[in-house]
Amino acid sequence: MSQSEILAKLKEAVEEMDTDMAEAAATEAIAAGINPMVAINDGLAAGMQTMSDLFDEGEAFVPQLVVAAEAFESAVAILAAGMSDDEKAKASKGKVLLHTVHGDIHDIGKNIVKTMLSASGFEVIDMGRDVPVEEVVAKAKELKVDIIAGAALMTTTMPAQRDIITLLKEEGIRDNFKCLFGGAPVSKEWVEKIGGDAFAETASEAVEKAKMLVKELRG
Ligand code: B12
């Protein structure tokens, strides 16, 4: 099979939400000597972009996105195993510390954001859900991330996003990080009000905003 046929198969596997097919195509990509980043970006991520566009247009729904993301992740695991740490760091567009805020256990949207960011070449450290503000800030310092990205799905948990900014300011490290926030009740106005750097309404917008923020950070 040619490189373009294997890339098409990777894309199709994600669009078809077929984990077995995605894993088989990833194994073929390695056997054929295809650069893993090319396989991820031009194959798997292209498929995930189709699914994300369909979701934004209301033509795909959460369960399909979740299953497509599983196919994507399992193929990425196979491809990433063939890459050195150096290659992974070089390929990274930036380091993102992702979490769902304290008190909030909703993580379906966050996981889609994670998949889309990884698909676009970001190194994503996922702290999970219901993560205390102090732990987020401590981890951001420890790992020297570029972006702190937090999801809040309830009006009652949105204030935890503000608390992250407050703690960063108290510690005098606000300018070391870019803060990207999202989640259904979150808005551009809210993020501006709390002094965050960017808001994204969808997972694909999160990727655009993350690229913009890293550019700002690196000048
Ligand atoms: C599924 C769901 C659950 C599931 C969560 C499963 C899981 N693993 O996530 C379960 C059943 C566990 C659950 C529990 C509860 N839920 Co609930 N839940 C929902 C529901 C129906 C869908 C959320 C969802 O997954 N949407 C689909 C995803 C794809 O969309 P999304 O999360 O918005 O993500 C998109 C964007 O927001 C953005 N995005 C997401 N994350 C991020 C992060 C960043 C950094 C960025 C930039 C962007 C971004 O990109 C995503 C993709 O485009 C919503 C209703 C709704 N319409 O939102 C209620 C809802 C959020 N739940 C609600 C409530 C009240 C609860 C409970 C308190 C219920 C209870 N009494 O026990 C508990 C919460 C417990 C807790 N401490 O968190 C309320 C919140 C009301 C409020 N105060 O604002 C809602 C709005 C329902 C309602 N109308 O009352 N829930």
Could you give a quick summary of the protein structure above?
The chain is α/β, with parallel strands linked by helices. It has helices at residues 3-15, 19-31, 36-56, 62-81, 85-91, 108-119, 133-143, 159-170, 188-194, 203-218, and strands spanning 95-100, 123-126, 147-151, 178-182, 198-199. Helices cover 60% and strands 10% of the residues.
Fold topology:
Blueprint: H1 3-15, H2 19-31, H3 36-56, H4 62-81, H5 85-91, E1 95-100, H6 108-119, E2 123-126, H7 133-143, E3 147-151, H8 159-170, E4 178-182, H9 188-194, E5 198-199, H10 203-218
Parallel strand pairs: 1-2, 1-3, 3-4, 4-5
Helix pairs in contact: 1-2, 1-3, 1-4, 2-4, 3-4, 4-6, 6-10, 7-8
Radius of gyration: 18 Å
| Ligand identities | cobalamin
Q: Total domains, how many? A: 2
Report the sheet with the most strands, covering strand number, pairing sense and barrel closure: 5 strands, parallel
Give the averaged pLDDT, no decimals: 92
How would you portray this structure in words?
This protein is α/β, with parallel strands linked by helices and 219 residues long. The protein has two domains: 3-89, Methionine synthase domain (Methyltransferase, Methionine Synthase (B12-binding Domains), Chain A, domain 1); 92-218, Cobalamin-binding domain (Rossmann fold). Helix content is 60%, strand content 10%. The protein has ten helices and five strands. It has helices spanning 3-15, 19-31, 36-56, 62-81, 85-91, 108-119, 133-143, 159-170, 188-194, 203-218, and strands at residues 95-100, 123-126, 147-151, 178-182, 198-199. It has a five-stranded parallel β-sheet, with helices on both faces. Helix 1 packs antiparallel against helix 4 (62-81) and helix 3 (36-56) packs antiparallel against helix 4. It is globular, with a radius of gyration of 18 Å. The model has no long low-confidence stretch (mean pLDDT 92). Cobalamin binds at residues 62, 103-110, 112-113, 149-151, 153-156, 180-185, 200, 202-203, 206.
